[in-house]
Amino acid sequence: MFSTLIGMPCCVFLFINGTMLFTLRSKLVFRETSRYILLYNLLFADTAQLAFSQLLYIFATCRIMLTYPVCGVLCMFTTLTNDISPLTLVVMSLERYVAVCYPLRHATIATIRNTAVAIIVVWAISLLNVFTRILLLLNFPFKDLESLQMTDVCSDIQMLLDPITDHYDKAYTYCLFVSATVAIISSYIGVMIAARSASADKASAHKARKTLLLHLVQLGLSLFSTMHISIVQSLSTIMQRLAIVRIKSVFYVFIYILPRCLTSLIYGLRDQTIRPILLYHLCCRLTLSCPSRG
What we know:
InterPro entries: GPCR1_Superfamily_Member, GPCR_Rhodpsn, GPCR_Rhodpsn_7TM. This protein has 294 residues and is mainly alpha-helical.
């Protein structure tokens, strides 16, 4: 029953995210505007991460033991989608910085082509990290094992088979999030400085500052979801297994599920162009009181 209660909100948010993805492809303005294209990439990564995490959670709840190759593939997909989110947040922050600080050049910088190149770079960096982890795993002496069948449930922790992989994972994570934090904070400071200019659009700058703060909150939640592995490992040495399982379940809800749903809730309800269309699709095309815009 406990596992069912945890799984139900995940299914609900998967539906909301799926509806948001459909909404972002339903209008031409969403497909040809840089920030909406980046939002689609962020939401796609969050939805995929949510789906893979739920799949691993079901395997863990049902005590389904996978083989190392199958678990490795699932964990690599999880790692890939988890890396894309902070990198996309950085690109979105830079796009907002350009929109406020260089409004006359924004249209020539934030083109569809440049946005596509930025997304390709984001995916390339994430894939490079995945390939590096695969190479490190291939160095592990699997032939010395009696069987490739895992003795515990599949998780990221179980795939840290040697100290080198663990050290690399921590170094990459710290480097990624420090760089992303510096980029977002720098963009926020740049927007604040631009807002003090007499020629700046005060309303646009204020909205951009709020958006960058939301990016920073999302980045913090994403960082916490990555670092919770170390927290669980520390608690496992002083607590019983049943307590650890329950703590992991709580972490799963508040660290994995909720942050992956913030993208739809925050951007879907804040954006005046997306909100009426999103509500229209969520309510199964019922007549809404709010008029449609855009």
